[in-house]
């Protein structure tokens, strides 16, 4: 499978390129939306949680922003990734290629978007007086890769299952919304009641978000050992996702 | 045969599709109707065994829905078998859907990269072939314009050029030789020949038997999910056409608007030799010689006059009268009707008759069956294939079916009378 995927690497590259290029095609601001969109979202969240709900966190906009960008990547992979196969059904019904190419390209596309958004995040951090450390910045790609693995595993499962059960797209919309609130994106962890802490820390996204904050909000170096749990869970889902996908892709052309 | 000489090896291949009466892909419907997710399993391929040698070019033929396209899709791995195995050795390129994945906003050149990458080519491989692809497509400077500005011919030319320049070991083609104008078609055909001569294995699905005969070493006739016959294209196509002819005749009977009772009747009484909607029925057919005597035996060269009486149950507009003559082995040796002969359409309101005279008939000795028909437009009202049997006799001693006028001439040197 890896050998075949390697052979089709150019297809992945060209699909990612096309995805990025066509995403904002026809809009006046074009590629700038990659940066504008998270900024606008930031303003909305900031308004709601800082001004209306009084989050009580210093530099809340940065706190929020650092968590929001990786979260948008993750939720995009899950929700958008779930329909990635269906969207490409013409291709799947007509031409053979390893079907994994599609969710992989989708996740990579979203990943590139996240990476570009981090430029904005770093700029906002600097403006807010947080200077990320060199060690921290070196750790950043590691965290991104851990998150990538986890997101890809879930996207593989979601995209394959959604072919058979179209409702999954909507179900996943709700799940990601709930999941977002189960992750410290727009509030401080101190709000979590003690008795829920055990369940709360099972969420593999929490250590990932914490690690991002350590670098870009606190300006320090994350404790990478806390990421091991996320990595193990991510790899588990990637393997399961690859197996599930292999099994389910057999009937894609018929089900679509 | 050693396996390494095979490009494609298929054993016991079975494939069926679920045909849902009412497909529910949503959770609600699945939950509510989980017990009655009604579907029917339509068997498309039912145990196919097939070997295709390396370098061989093979045509798949069969009527619509026989499973030949499914077979092709299984070879490309778009579909997977339910049972059995299919081994494909080598890189496959398919011309199943030309231009799948073309993006209208991207330029022709960019689409070449995208499209070729879908066939599994690396960037370098595409770079190497780019010149050839552009040249073959004859797009010239248009290659840098967005594909949406292309005419459909240009679009197909580009798509074909990419697919054909992939340099696959096995090329699968589904009815594609209808690309662009006649010039480009000829070019494609030559290119395909070149590819074939270079040792590429080619599998074509086509309705054009001629194309397959021109192009392929072997024809495989797929019928009802099985390989019915395979071998030299000319031989297989003969069998196929004969078979299809029979099927068509049977279908004509079924489609001719008879009620089931009538079909049963005609099957009992006259087999499949008389059919029609029955508003008008031929009641009697008689043949007369030139002395106005009713006859069934005629000399070659004699006039034969047929008189056909019919009875009317319902009015028939646009009526067409016809005649057909068959040799006793069933070969249709002559046929015509009032439409072919450019008479105006008739309107039949009451019982009557029509006559047709074969002047100076050219038939040679033998038994012949004469059929008559009354049709409404193209719909048979009474189509009676075996209305009458006649016999032709002659003293001439000539053999065959028809007496043809002829002249002899001789060079007088060598022949002594």
Number of DSSP helices of chain A?
13
Specify Rg of chain A, calculated over alpha carbons: 19 Å
Low-confidence parts of chain B, pLDDT < 50 over ≥5 residues? 257-271
Give the SSE order of chain B as H and E letters.
Answer: EHEEHEEHHHEHEHEEHHEEEEEEEEEE
Q: What's the alpha carbon Rg of chain B, rounded to whole Å? A: 30 Å
For the biggest sheet of chain A, the summary is: none
What share of residues are in beta strands of chain B?
25-35%
Stated plainly, the CATH topology of the domain at 275-393 in chain B is called: Coagulation Factor XIII, Chain A, domain 1
Derived from helix and strand composition plus strand pairing, the structural class of chain A reads mainly alpha
**Low-pLDDT ranges of chain A:** none
Distance N to C terminus of chain B: 63 Å
What is the subunit arrangement here?
heterodimer
Number of E strands of chain A: 0
Q: Roughly how much helix do the residues of chain B carry, as a percent range?
A: 25-40%
Task: Give the name of the CATH superfamily of the domain at 275-393 in chain B.
Answer: abc- transporter (atp binding component) like domain
Q: pLDDT average of chain A, as an integer?
A: 87
Helix share of residues of chain A?
over 70%
Q: Hey, roughly how much beta strand do the residues of chain A contain?
A: under 5%
Can you give a write-up of this model?
- The complex is a heterodimer of chains A (256) and B (417).
- Chain A is mostly helical and 256 residues long.
- Chain A has one domain.
- Chain A has 13 helices and no strands.
- Chain B is of the alpha/beta class and 417 residues long.
- The longest helix of chain B is centred in the middle third of the chain and has 23 residues, at 233-255.
- The radius of gyration of chain B is 30 Å and the shape is elongated.
- Chain B has helices spanning 27-32, 68-76, 108-118, 123-137, 152-164, 182-197, 209-215, 233-255, 260-270, and strands at 6-20, 39-53, 57-61, 83-88, 92-95, 170-174, 201-205, 218-223, 226-231, 274-275, 280-288, 297-299, 304-312, 316-327, 332-337, 346-348, 352-358, 366-376, 379-393.
- The relative contact order of chain B is 0.10.
- In chain B, strands 10, 12, 14, 15, 16, 18 and 19 form a 7-stranded mixed β-sheet that branches. A 6-stranded mixed β-sheet of chain B has the order 5-6-7-3-8-9, with helices on both faces. A 3-stranded antiparallel β-sheet of chain B has the order 2-1-4.
- Classes of the chains: A mainly alpha (256), B alpha/beta (417).
- At the A-B interface, helix 2, helix 6 and helix 13 of A face helix 1 and helix 3 of B.
């Amino acid at each position: 499978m890896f050998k075949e995927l390697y052979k089709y690497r150019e297809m992945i590259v060209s699909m990612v390129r096309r995805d990025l290029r066509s995403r904002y095609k026809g809009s006046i601001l074009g590629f700038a939306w990659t940066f504008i969109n998270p900024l606008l979202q930031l303003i909305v969240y900031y308004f709601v949680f800082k001004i209306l709900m009084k989050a009580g966190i210093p530099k809340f906009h940065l706190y929020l922003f650092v968590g929001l960008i990786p979260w948008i990547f993750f939720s995009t992979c899950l929700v958008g990734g779930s329909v990635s196969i269906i969207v490409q059904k013409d291709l799947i019904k007509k031409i053979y290629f390893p079907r994994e190419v599609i969710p992989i390209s989708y996740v990579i596309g979203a990943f590139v978007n996240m990476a570009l958004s981090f430029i904005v995040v770093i700029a906002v951090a600097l403006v807010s007086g947080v200077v990320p450390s060199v060690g921290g910045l070196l750790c950043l790609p590691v965290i991104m890769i851990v998150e990538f693995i986890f997101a890809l595993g879930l996207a593989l499962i979601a995209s394959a299952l959604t072919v058979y059960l179209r409702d999954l797209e909507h179900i996943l919309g709700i799940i990601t919304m709930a999941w977002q609130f189960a992750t410290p994106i727009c509030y401080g962890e101190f709000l979590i009641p003690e008795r829920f802490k055990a369940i709360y820390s099972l969420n593999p996204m929490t250590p990932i978000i914490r690690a991002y904050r350590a670098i870009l909000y606190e300006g320090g170096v994350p404790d990478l050992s806390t990421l091991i749990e996320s990595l193990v869970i991510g790899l588990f889902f990637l393997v399961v996702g690859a197996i599930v996908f292999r099994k389910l892709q057999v009937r894609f052309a018929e089900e679509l | 045969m050693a396996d390494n000489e095979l490009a494609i090896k298929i054993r016991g291949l079975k494939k069926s599709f679920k045909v849902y009466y009412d497909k529910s892909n949503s959770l609600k419907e699945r939950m509510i109707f989980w017990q009655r997710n009604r579907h029917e399993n339509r068997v498309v391929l039912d145990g196919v065994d097939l070997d295709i040698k390396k370098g061989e070019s093979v045509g798949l033929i069969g009527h619509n829905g026989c499973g030949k396209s499914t077979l092709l899709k299984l070879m490309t791995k778009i579909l997977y078998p339910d049972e059995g195995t299919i081994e494909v050795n080598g890189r496959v390129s398919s011309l199943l859907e030309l231009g799948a994945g073309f993006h209208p906003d991207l330029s022709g050149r960019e689409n070449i990269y995208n499209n070729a990458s879908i066939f599994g080519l690396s960037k370098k491989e595409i770079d190497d072939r780019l010149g050839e692809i552009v040249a073959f497509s004859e797009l010239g400077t248009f290659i840098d314009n967005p594909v949406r500005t292309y005419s459909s011919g240009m679009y197909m030319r580009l798509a074909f050029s990419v697919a054909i320049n992939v340099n696959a070991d096995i090329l699968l083609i589904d009815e594609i030789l209808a690309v662009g104008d006649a010039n480009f078609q000829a070019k494609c055909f030559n290119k395909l020949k070149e590819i074939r001569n270079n040792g590429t294995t080619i599998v074509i699905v086509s309705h054009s038997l001629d194309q397959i005969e021109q192009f392929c070493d072997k024809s495989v006739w797929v019928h009802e999910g099985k390989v019915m016959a395979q071998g030299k294209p000319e031989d297989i196509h003969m069998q196929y056409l004969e078979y299809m002819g029979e099927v068509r005749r049977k279908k004509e009977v079924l489609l001719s608007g008879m009620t089931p009772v009538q079909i049963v009747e005609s099957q009992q009484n006259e087999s499949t030799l008389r059919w029609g909607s029955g508003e008008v029925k031929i009641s009697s057919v008689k043949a007369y010689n030139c002395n106005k005597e009713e006859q069934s035996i005629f000399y070659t060269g004699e006039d034969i006059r047929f008189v056909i009486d019919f009875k009317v149950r319902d009015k028939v507009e646009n009526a067409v009268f016809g005649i057909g003559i068959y040799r006793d082995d069933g070969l249709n040796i002559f046929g015509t009707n009032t439409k072919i002969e450019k008479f105006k359409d008739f309107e039949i309101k009451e019982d009557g008759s029509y006559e047709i005279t074969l002047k100076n008939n050219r038939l040679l000795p033998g038994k012949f069956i004469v059929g008559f028909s009354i049709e409404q437009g193209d719909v048979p009202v009474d189509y009676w294939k075996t209305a009458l049997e006649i016999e032709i006799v002659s003293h001439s001693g000539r053999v065959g079916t028809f007496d043809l006028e002829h002249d002899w001439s001789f060079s007088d040197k060598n022949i002594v009378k």
